[in-house]
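cron nightly-structures :: item 1 of 1
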Amino acid sequence: MRTILLASLLLSLPGLAAAEEAAKDSDLSALVAKIQTFYEKADGMDARFSQSYRQGGMPSRLGGATAQGRIRIRKPQGDSGPRMRWDYDDGRMILVVGDLSYTYDPDTKQITLYRLDQRTLSAAVTFLWGKGNLADDFEITRSSRKDLGAGVALDLVPRKASQGFSKVHLVVDESTGLVRRSVVVQADGSENHISFLDAKVGAVAPLAEFDPNSIFPEDAVRVDTQVR
């Protein structure tokens, strides 16, 4: 009888393990859906951010660099594209208005314009303004990394090869779907870490705060030779 009972228990273990794996997959899918829904419903975001860069591969002046600032995002309305503004505490600014990106350097007092193709942007970026689908663009698993801070850490590997990055880590508040931290891993192993602090998701900044004709210093020189 004991032999039969032991055999029965052993035979049941693979099924139990499979059930546990299925439950984990279900929980992960539910969490990814929660992230997607959280940002799809939000009309905007206003938060402080902390950014750090960890060097990989060849040495770079960016290795170990840190910065802080404020980020504002406004969801596309009607025919208008998304708006995103990064104000660094050191005076640098990055502004995205539809398919144009403006980068301001306070040292040179220069604004450089770049043309963006919204269709080529990864869902790792566009989900912040409610566009794109993380599950469609990435293979998503729970991360084994323990150095990414509080929250549930996820690994996102692009389903299609990307020239810009090899992997993204997201650290998520499991109860809400709020992303607390994003880590973009480059092909050489370099990592760009951005933590979102005191995030006010749903806050909609006025359009005037994204106006490239008024937010930059009056003496800034605009260079638009890269716009085609």
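cron nightly-structures :: done
The helical segments are 2-41, 123-126, 134-137.
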